[in-house]
Amino acid sequence: MKLIDEVIEINERHCVTVSTVSPRWPLYEDGHVDPIILVELAAQTAGINFGWHEMREGKGAAKQGWLVGIKRADFFCNKIPLGSAIVVTVEEQSKNGTYATISGTAQVGSDSVGRIELQVFRPEHA
């Protein structure tokens, strides 16, 4: 599933994306989505960030999937309404061989709706 609509900014330090809540999304029900979708949005934004770095290093696209664990997820709302533009920012906090720790924030307008920390295992970096 592809939930990211647009990459707003990407550089050496972070990646920022925007996604608009749609009825085709998983967890959509009665005009809103559950904020747990923010975990997937952070993971997809991290994937864009990893891919961008690999392209800059002259590497091809990853040939294997990644295992992603949720280290921490804090949600600051009970639901996110249909049509909301969710802006997700991720930063790589640490990297050690095949493992990386990613922190992400999610906003709808000026409201912070979530904070997510992911642990990522990337076997192609073994």
Walk me through the structure.
The protein has one domain: Thiol Ester Dehydrase, Chain A (Roll). Helices cover 16% and strands 48% of the residues. The mean pLDDT is 90. By secondary structure, the chain is α+β, with helices and mostly antiparallel strands. The protein has a six-stranded antiparallel β-sheet with strand order 1-2-7-8-9-5, covered by helices on one side. The chain has a three-stranded antiparallel β-sheet with strand order 3-4-6, with no helix packed on it. The protein is built from one helix and nine strands; from the N terminus they run E-E-E-E-H-E-E-E-E-E. The longest helix has 20 residues. It is globular.
Secondary structure: elements and pairs:
Elements: E1 6-10, E2 14-20, E3 28-29, E4 32-33, H1 37-56, E5 67-75, E6 80-81, E7 85-96, E8 99-108, E9 111-121
Antiparallel strand pairs: 1-2, 2-7, 3-4, 4-6, 5-9, 7-8, 8-9
Would you identify the CATH H-level superfamily? Hotdog Thioesterase
Order of helices and strands: EEEEHEEEEE
Can you count the beta strands?
9
Oligomer: single chain
| Overall geometry | globular
Number of helices: 1
The percent range for helix content is 10-25%
Distance between the termini: 27 Å
What is the averaged pLDDT score? 90
Strand order of the largest sheet: 1-2-7-8-9-5
Low-confidence stretches: none
Structural class: alpha+beta
Largest pleated sheet: 6 strands, antiparallel
Number of domains: 1
CATH architectural label: Roll
Radius of gyration: 14 Å
Q: In percent terms, what proportion of residues is strand?
A: over 45%
CATH class (first level) name? Alpha Beta
What is the name of the CATH topology?
Thiol Ester Dehydrase, Chain A
